Amino acid sequence: MEDKEPIATGAVAVLLENHRTFLNFLERRVGNRALAEDILQDAFTRNLDKFDAVGEEAIVPWFYRTLRNAAIDRYRRQGTANKALEAFARELEVHAHPMPDLESEICECVTRLAHTLKPEYADVLQAVDVEGQAVKEFADARGISASNAGVRAFRAREALRKRVVQSCGTCAEHGCLNCTCGTSPRVS
């Protein structure tokens, strides 16, 4: 006798019978078939353990609410991600060309601290912030995507900022102008 796969019963069977309907419901709301499939798959996997508790008779309306909430959550996450990317792009524009007089006053310890970071962070800071290389040029030279290079630059700046605060304390709060720090970094 052949082993046959078990046939879904109860609430799971009802959901599987309505798969195409659920997918169409999501596609109309999100406007993208692939995104609708992702949301539906995610909703199925996240809620597998809840199906039997809901019960066969209430599962369809419950799952529609679940799908609607999942689509809303996806839009919220996407909106948050878009806002973060826009803020990051504005930061890159603002910091693209530092003023020469400000650049000459930056604390010498910043350069030393940059070399205590991960090598890829020190590399991007040296190329982009010190040498003035465009992020796209940096990415092309390293064989990585421009967005990866941008994120790397952002993370490197954040790591350097934290290192400067750890090392310089109150001096860092004032932009390292007229620095009174010692010559050796106090990295913890």
CATH class label of the largest domain? Mainly Alpha
CATH architecture of the largest domain: Orthogonal Bundle
Radius of gyration: 26 Å
Q: Helix count?
A: 11
Largest sheet: none
Tally of strands: 0
Shape: elongated
* Measured distance between first and last alpha carbons: 68 Å
Class based on secondary structure composition and strand pairing: mainly alpha
User: H/E series, N to C?
Assistant: HHHHHHHHHHH
CATH topology of the largest domain: Rna Polymerase Sigma Factor, Chain: A
Arithmetic mean pLDDT: 77
Low-confidence stretches: 183-188
Percent of residues in β-strands:
under 5%
Molecular structure report:
The protein is elongated, with a radius of gyration of 26 Å. It is built from 11 helices and no strands. 71% of the residues lie in helices and 0% in strands. Residues 183-188 have low confidence and may be disordered. The protein has 188 residues and is mainly α.
List keywords for this structure.
188 residues; 11 helices; mainly alpha; Rna Polymerase Sigma Factor, Chain: A; disordered C terminus; Arc Repressor Mutant, subunit A; 71% helix
Tell me the layout of helices and strands:
Elements: H1 10-17, H2 19-30, H3 33-47, H4 51-54, H5 59-94, H6 100-105, H7 109-114, H8 119-130, H9 135-142, H10 146-168, H11 170-173
Helix pairs in contact: 2-3, 2-5, 3-5, 8-10, 9-10
Q: What's a quick, concise take on this entry?
A:
This protein is an all-alpha fold and 188 residues long.
